[in-house]
Amino acid sequence: MHPIIENPSSSPVTAGVTDEVAERLAAALRCATVSTEDPADTADAEFLRLARHLEAAFPRVHAELTLTTFGHSRLYRWHGTEPGHVSAILLAHQDVVPVDDAQRWTHPPFAGVVDEEFIWGRGAIDDKSRVLAVLEAVEWALGAGIRPRHTVFLAFGHDEEVFGDGGAVRMAEYLRAENVRAELLLDEGGVITDGVADGIDRPVASIMLGEKGYATVRLSVTETGGHSSMPGRQTAVGRLARAVARVQDRPMPLRLTPVIADMLARMRVALPEPHRKLLELTDTRGLATLAAPLVARILAAAPSTEAMVRTTTAPTVIRGGVKANVLPQSAEALVNFRILPGDSVSAVLAHCRKVIRDIGVAIDLVGAASEPSRVTGPGPAYELIAELATDLVPGIVTTTGLVPGATDSRHYDGLAETRCNFAPIVLTAADLARIHGTDERISRLNYARLIEFNRRLIARLAAASAQGEGARR
Ligand SMILES: [Zn+2]
Question: What's this protein's family per the entry (predicted)?
Fold first, then answer.
């Protein structure tokens, strides 16, 4: 059966998805594809169940695109009618974070419950809705005879939540070996937030252009130990505590980077008067003006915006000592840094040494670290995404920005002209807290926006001439 499908319009989406479409997502949410740090205990059976579901739910995609797997990661190649060019790499991830408060959920996190308004479950937003929305759109396009002029890749990782070494890293390597250079790389990250930014009464679409880096630094102190009645001048615990306090009290300097200046310039129209005046003094070319440090200081006043203007420092773990009357032989602390473009992992280590000023404190990196991504300028691909978002949800402000966390797209550096981290779903602050939290869910309306966005994007990438190709099949 071939439903009659009209070309996507440019009108806003006002109705949610049907039961049938909602159920396809819900079935994916019922697969508990939880990623774990230890590659030995992956939820293999759950990933295989998800793979079988995708293959059954999207038969055209699986008949007509070329699929290469890397572990449970899935890289689909949709051949363009003009070979040799790549228009887009659409990323999403199939894995989800664990749930440790299942009894607090309204519905069990892996039950995939659909009601009148929402589709509930871990992964409903992050990130299975994006995996399924892309597949819904491609399945639709194949049914409508649409073929892209330039090749499109779909890359669905299986270990994004644990740094992507088994999935995204290998898929990106494969694409590099094929000399792929796409016009657009699209991934998770920014959304349309409503009522989140202070003093802005319009929803803000954050089409983010890059992400911060990541590093965890271990501070450790080793002493001889002994009885606490003769401690000497300081213990390992005291020495470590001083080091942690120094690192926390002296963060890396504030800086207004070009992408954040661009973000603010685009938001200017929606800002209250005093802020607007100030920003008129700092446009993207005016970074060196007197107002730039002032703007950076204003942003630094709240934790959510401070993250935009500096490498953040978060002491997260501290341990040492066993008993009140025994001198500790060792103590250690972990400090997590999110690194602003322009800083680097090695600059973070150098900064720690400089502010701690104590050779008795060992400073080293632990776990995975990543440099801040290259930030691509807002080119034509950005403009296209912004236009599609504005059509879907009229009245929004579209702007750029930086993803404060880490996504799989950092592994794809250099594989595309423009990288955008964005999904056109409208979320409030309370909705944002559900991501990685309790009661994750997506509204039928947001899911409809997401699918329609991908359809329109594909239709635009395909361009008019490809319609003829499809018709000849
Ligand atoms: Zn995610």
Answer: Belongs to the peptidase M20A family.
